[in-house]
Amino acid sequence: METKKTKKADLENKRPLLLSIGLVISLSFTLLAFSWKTPIKEMDDFGQVQWDIPDDVIIPLTKPEKKELAPPVQTVTEFVLVDNETEIDDQELDIFDTEMTDEGIDVNALIDKNREEELVDETVYFFVDEMPEFPGGMEALLRYIAKAVDYPVVAKENGIQGKVYLNFVVNTNGQVSDATVVRGVDPSLDKEALRVVNSMPLWRPGKQAGKAVRVAYHVPISFVLQ
Predict the structure, then answer these.
(1) What is the per-residue pLDDT across 4-61, written as a single tens digit (0 to 9) for each?
(2) Pairing state of beta strands 206-208 and 176-183?
(3) According to its UniProt record, where is this protein mainly located (predicted)?
(4) Is 204 exposed, middle or buried (0-12, 13-18, 19+ CB in 10 A)?
């Protein structure tokens, strides 16, 4: 009986030969690649290239981020007007003869009890707990001004009219003092307005924390020709 060989068995027998042939071909291509020389082409002359280089190179600076600081706490100070024209008595320092004892200095001997004086608050306030009040209130003040004003003849003859603004101080005893013209119209009208303010009766004084204090007051006086 004759043994038949299949195609698959025939390929298995020829496999070592085929591997050897493939290896030889691969080595040949590798040697050919290393021996191959690429011709170097000369660079074409593209002409002279000019580069525009700026004289000054400005480098942008990045500003550091500013940290937002918390706003400072604002302290509101009450503004008070102090009368600088207040006369201050020069007080001399009295030295009393004292005897030194073993126990020290007798402090009571250094105090002159007969010369103790109550300190008076001369500060002028703009706002207090209880503002000064004209006797009878604001309506009574307006009636008083209208009745007390004597229109100057010079102003009448020249047709001068307008509003005079005045400031004054109501003292702790209710008396009006330190009247001044803040904005005037004419010397004759300003003088008459000052006369009316200075002739006012005693006011009810203003109080701060239950104590009478000096308070600044503002009042306008209108002069109108009819």
Answers:
(1) 555 555 666 667 777 777 777 777 777 666 665 555 454 444 444 343 434 443 334 3
(2) unpaired
(3) membrane
(4) middle
- In this prediction, residue 160 has a pLDDT band, given cuts at 50, 70 and 90, of very high
**CB-side exposure of 35: number of CA atoms within 13 Å?**
6
Q: Which domains does the chain have, with CATH numbers?
A: 123-223 (3.30.2420.10)
- Residue 220, pLDDT score: 92
Cβ atoms of 213 and 125 closer than 8 Å: yes
**209 and 131 Cβ atoms separated by less than 8 Å:** no
Dihedral sign, Cα of residue 208, residue 210, residue 212, residue 217 = positive
User: Which amino acid belongs to residue 14?
Assistant: K
Biggest alpha carbon–alpha carbon distance for the chain: 168
